[in-house]
Specification:
Layout: E1 2-5, H1 10-25, E2 33-36, H2 42-56, H3 62-72, H4 81-89, H5 95-102, H6 105-120, E3 128-131, E4 135-138, H7 146-171
Helix pairs in contact: 2-4, 2-6, 4-5
Amino acid sequence: VLEMFSYLCSHCSTFEAFVNPWAEKAPDHVDFRRVPVVFGRGSWELYARAYATAQIMGLPEEAHMAMMDRLWKERKIMRSLSDIADFYVQFGADKQKFLSTAQSFAVDGRIRRDEQLARDLGITGTPSMVVAGKYRVSGSSALPSFDALLDVVNYLVEMEYEQQKSVAGAAE
């Protein structure tokens, strides 16, 4: 299950209060991963780079929510990679290592792969959830709440899991 998000998306900030408890309670067969999207926006790319860097450096998960809080609750926008690196220092990052990692081939590659994945999956808005690489679920008038969105995700996860179990059983 993928959560396609951006730190600069207000809906994504609101969605975190729903998706975090969902991810904590997800069954063991669910592999949950966040994927930052850019949509060609320079400011979104800066924060996608920050997320990818934090992931590659193994910074703690609480840094993710703290970033959302910094942007949406404290209303403190960081406009440079240096400012963002200063933010991650509180989570154990060395500023210079963060900056060099953020400009590395590994982070560039991750951002390109994530952008291609978003295009391949037809992601046009955030937040969006993708189940098993083939089901895209996002908020709409048909899904009146984030709880309803996650109910659909749960249904698709279990449907896909049962299907995979039956295929595995038939192969034995």
